[in-house]
């Protein structure tokens, strides 16, 4: 399994990307092709013991910066993103992963890998972390103004992903709306509803915002504008709650004293707080974006995963893991089959 990793992608590239790359090859049983400015990559690799590790460098002289417009793809054909995509297109690697400029990655995937035949628009899918059961949110930013047939394909691709990657047979699918009734929602939602009902998917109807967090469906379908707002709002709320709990736990003399006594080897802290520590750790892990790695771009003719620009080393490693898992189950072919069967049906 060979994965192309954009060494220049991300707010903290290439240092953090290389840190995550080394972790990935040690833990995931894959080979990595690092694409970017060779001198910079070698300088960062020198900080690690990489003897015997399956790491290859492919020089790409240009970088599409995080704040550049996607038009830079045309003026920088030898940017790391485009060089990496071409490696996948030519069959020299199984997947591409980048925490770089997300707009540029999406545009390059469409330009260099092209869409799966029959797919009108690719979509970004991501794990929605605040639900009791696994939930895949699609789309979360690639298409701000899609059509009903696009949302239908998002649902089909999301269901294929959940079934193959998460092992959930016949996953439940719902569409985001402002009410449970069929006559609720904007024009896009109302026009998509009959398509989803007739799709053969396990469609369970409309999902209000409060329903998404209850886990009523495994796949939540929406347009990219709404999905992105939902995801960013959730991330903001999680961050706020973390700061709030930290403030409350450290506010006041009693709390400060209890925390100060919670040192290894001492049992002087409040027993209740000690018992709750594993719970706090589980919650923190559940909502940590780095645990999920990145968002798959579904609908292009190749495996592409896009990570957060702020990704740390753990997030980079897990982004590579998602790419590996998608390639292992041949998800692109699964989606092609699902689209073909839908057209024939």
Describe, in plain words, how this protein is organized in 3D.
By secondary structure, the protein is α/β, with parallel strands linked by helices. It folds into two domains: 147 residues, 3-Layer(aba) Sandwich (Isopropylmalate Dehydrogenase); 173 residues, Isopropylmalate Dehydrogenase. The protein has 14 helices and eleven strands. Helices cover 48% and strands 15% of the residues. Helix 7 links the parallel strand 7 and strand 8. Strands 3-2-1-4-11-10-5-6-9-7-8 form an eleven-stranded mixed sheet, with helices on both faces. Helix 4 packs parallel to helix 5 and helix 6 crosses helix 14. It is globular.
> How many individual helices?
14
Percent of residues in helical segments? 40-55%
Strand content: 15-25%
* CATH domain topology of the largest domain: Isopropylmalate Dehydrogenase
What's the β-strand tally? Answer: 11
The side-by-side strand order for the widest beta sheet comes to 3-2-1-4-11-10-5-6-9-7-8
Per CATH, which architecture of the largest domain?
A: 3-Layer(aba) Sandwich
> CATH H-level name of the largest domain... which superfamily?
Isopropylmalate Dehydrogenase
Structural domain tally: 2
> Distance between the terminal alpha carbons, to the nearest Å?
34 Å
What's the overall average pLDDT, rounded? Answer: 88
CATH class of the largest domain: Alpha Beta
Radius of gyration: 22 Å
Elements, N to C (H/E): EHEHEHHEHEEHEHEHEHHHHEEHH
**What profile does the largest beta sheet have?**
11 strands, mixed
Spans of at least 5 consecutive residues whose pLDDT stays below 50 are 264-269
Structural class: alpha/beta
Sum up the overall morphology in one term: globular
């Amino acid at each position: 399994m060979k994965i192309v990793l954009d060494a220049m992608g991300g707010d903290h590239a290439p240092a953090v990307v290389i840190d995550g790359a080394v972790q990935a090859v040690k833990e995931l049983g894959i080979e990595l092709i690092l694409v970017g400015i060779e001198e910079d990559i070698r300088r960062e690799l020198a900080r690690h013991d990489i003897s015997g590790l399956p790491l290859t460098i492919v020089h790409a002289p240009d970088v599409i910066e995080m704040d550049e417009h996607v038009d830079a793809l045309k003026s920088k054909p030898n940017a790391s993103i485009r060089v990496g995509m071409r490696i996948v297109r030519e069959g020299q690697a199984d997947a591409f992963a980048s925490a770089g400029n997300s707009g540029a990655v999406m545009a390059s995937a469409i330009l260099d890998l092209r869409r799966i035949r029959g797919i009108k628009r690719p979509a970004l899918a991501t794990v929605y972390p605040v639900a009791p059961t696994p939930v895949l949110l699609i789309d979360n930013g690639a298409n701000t103004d899609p059509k009903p047939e696009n949302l239908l394909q998002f649902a089909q691709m999301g269901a294929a992903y959940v079934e193959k990657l998460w092992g959930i047979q016949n996953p439940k699918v719902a569409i985001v709306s402002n009410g449970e009734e069929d006559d609720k929602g904007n024009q896009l939602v109302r026009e998509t509803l009959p398509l989803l009902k007739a799709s053969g998917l396990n469609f369970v109807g409309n999902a209000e915002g409060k329903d998404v967090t209850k886990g009523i469906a495994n796949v939540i379908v929406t347009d990219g504008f709404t999905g992105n707002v939902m995801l960013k709002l959730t991330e903001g709320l999680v961050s706020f709650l973390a700061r709030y709990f930290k403030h409350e736990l450290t506010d006041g003399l009693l709390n400060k004293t209890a925390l100060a006594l919670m040192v290894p080897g001492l049992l002087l802290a409040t027993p209740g707080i000690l018992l709750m520590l594993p719970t706090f750790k589980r919650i923190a892990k559940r909502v940590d974006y780095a645990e999920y790695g990145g968002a798959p771009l579904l609908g292009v003719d190749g495996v592409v995963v896009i990570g957060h620009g702020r990704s740390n080393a753990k997030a980079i490693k897990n982004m590579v893991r998602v790419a590996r898992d998608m390639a292992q189950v041949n998800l692109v072919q699964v989606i092609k089959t699902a689209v073909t069967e839908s057209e024939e049906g």
